[in-house]
Amino acid sequence: MKLTQITVSYGVTQSLPSYSNTKPAITLTADLESGDDPAAVEAALWEHARQAVHAQVDLALEANDQAAKYSTEPRYQVMKTYWNEWDHRGETKPPQYVIILPNEINPSRDAYAQRLVHANYSGESRRLRYTHALAVAQEIIRNADDSPTLLDCSDGDLSRLEAALAVAVEAADAHTAT
Length: 178
Hints:
3 helices; 4-stranded mixed beta sheet; alpha+beta; two-stranded antiparallel ribbon
C-alpha cells in the first residue's frame, strides 16, 4: 500500500451564554511527496487544525463577552473608579476612570481615594486579551453617564493611575476645605 494523502478532522463544542453553543470544525488534507514522513505530516495537520479551531472558539467567546479560553496571549483586566455618592454627600464627584491593568496586578479596592471595582458586571472583565479588554473599556466609557477617561496601564506602570487619582484627592480636599 502506498500512502499518498493524509486527512485529519478536528472540532470542538463550546457552550456560550443563553443556552447556545459554537461548534467550529476543520478538515485538512495533505498530499504526501516522496521523502515525507507520514507521521510528521499527520502531527503537523493535527496541530494546525487544533490551533485553527481553538482560535474560532476564542473569537466566539469574546463575541459573547467572555474571556478567551485557549489563547496564550497576555491577559488583562478592566477596572473602573467608583464614587459612592451616599458616603460623599455634598462633595463634588471627582473625575472617573476606566483602567486596563495586567491580570496579575490586584490593587486594593480602597488603595486610592476612589474605590476600584471590576468594570463589567454583566460580562467578563478579567483574563481578557488586550484587544478584548480595550473593547470592553470603550464600551464601558460609551455607556457611562459620567464620561470616564481611559487609563491604559496594560504595561504594568501604575504611575498614570496614581497621578490621576492623586489629582482627584486634591480636588476633593480643596472642596472640603471651602
